[in-house]
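[agent] plan:
  1. take the single chain provided in the ticket
  2. run structure prediction with default settings
  3. attach structure tokens to the ticket
  4. add a short note for the reviewer (M.T.)
[agent] executing step 1
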Amino acid sequence: MFDTMTLTKVIGGFCGAFLVFMLGGWAAEAILHPGGHGEGEQAYIIEVPEAGGEAAPAEEAVPYDVALAAADATAGEGVFRNCRSCHALDGADGVGPHLNGVVGRPVQAVDGFGYSGALIEVADAWTEENLYNFLEDPQGWAPGTSMGYAGLSDPADRANLIAYLATTGG
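[agent] step 2 finished; step 3 output follows
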């Protein structure tokens, strides 16, 4: 069943397919680069500012008291959805400690929860200001903390979340 003619047909088929692909590539190159590759005039130039020029103004940080003055606890409940995977409001600890009454309570106050120890080095209590700064960048505010969350960059979201947590009681 397998003879020389079959082998010749298979090899001819592969060579023909290779030839078609090679001619197709040549035709595409001729269409896309009619004057040859790299020999034409540049179609457009992107202006790039020189290094050392004027830097963009840095976004000014919003003080916590200004942000908290306009805080909305109802909107903070929506922001808390980001926290639910690790924290609870029913008094039960999960990956993180429960957040019932967290506003104003001492840092590392939940008995039986294994804290990393980094928080006690930067604060004594979870004041609104401490929470505001911590929620912006947990690793930056308390280096070595075991909280792996990247933080909330929007000052309004942080303030709304703190306002909501203040309503949860302890």
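[agent] step 4 note for reviewer: The helical segments are 4-32, 64-69, 73-79, 128-136, 138-141, 155-166.
[agent] ticket updated
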